[in-house]
Amino acid sequence: MALCPYSSPSFLHLRHNRRNRSRPLVVRSLDAAQPFDLESQVSERLNSESKLKIAIVGFGNYGQFLARTFSAQGHTLIAHSRSDYSDAASALGASFYRDPDDLCEQHPDVVLLSTSILSAAQVLNSLPLGRLRRSTLFADVLSVKEFPRNLLLSTLPQDFDILCTHPMFGPESARHGWSGLPFVFEKVRIGESEERISRCNRFLEIFEKEGCRMVEMTCAEHDFKTAESQFLTHTIGRILARLGPEDMDIGTKGYQTLLELVQNTCNDSFDLYNGLFMYNKNATELLERLDFAFTELKKELFANLHDILRKQLFESSQQSNE
Q1: Residues 169 and 145 in one domain
Q2: pTM score, two decimals?
Q3: How would you write the chain as a 3-class SS string?
């Protein structure tokens, strides 16, 4: 029996090709765009997942200073402080909570302790830790490190992660950016899960992206070194401030540097300086060494003066006798 010519394989193949050629080009265009749309969606999702919800506890001058950069990088910010900083928080894109219960119920990824050293224990003990997720990351930015490390370890539940940090700069020293400025940290207690390790690293990346010089060291080593640098700097600055130095038209560059030191150190509260002394066991020894060095320097000066006076006295006597 002969096959119908319209049902032959060659005719069917030709008709299929004609149908394909008659398809609108727009369909192919949409099909080609789909991978790019998917790539964009994946990129947006990954970018969203890299952002953190950060609760800044202690939203004073330094907390707001950090918040500006956190917000600029796209992180979600919530804040709490004993004083009402609602307007300041709103201006920085943060939500302010007067009640610590309300703050903790927002389930932040990171709780950042940015209080004064002297009030850190009181503020931490006022937080309703039971309202937080059990794996919350706690970080601090206090200028001493062994004290908050021991405080966080003794106060927080075992499941909470702990990261001790010290951005060694402030609004004055970092007014031109954070690039090249040291950021010291110790991963005191970070869970082994990939999620918790990633969260800690994402918080540290905030400072890496701004160009900070990342320095990982123990809290004990930090306190030993900052007693030799930060506490010494603040002490000299405050001693000079007691002398009341003033700008003058014949001031040398060295003198101008001293004036800047006074301004930079005295812009910080006395509570900060007092905390550097009270909560760093190395500070007492440094004060004793500073006092000893000053005493020795005075002895040397007066000894030289005594020798000069004796020499002048005896030379005058000798000349009189002649």
Answers
A1: yes
A2: 0.74
A3: CCCCHHHCHHHHHHHHHHHHHCCCHHHHHHHHHHHHHHHHHHHHHHHHHCCCEEEEECCCHHHHHHHHHHHHCCCEEEEECCCCCHHHHHHCCCEECCCHHHHHCCCCCEEEECCCCCCHHHHHHHCCHHHCCCCCEEEECCCCCHHHHHHHHHHCCCCCEEEEEEECCCCCCCCCCCCCCEEEEEEEECCCCHHHHHHHHHHHHHHHHCCCEEEECCHHHHHHHHHHHHHHHHHHHHHHHHHCCCCCCCCCHHHHHHHHHHHHHHCCCHHHHHHHHHCCHHHHHHHHHHHHHHHHHHHHHHHHHHHHHHHHHHHHHHHHHC
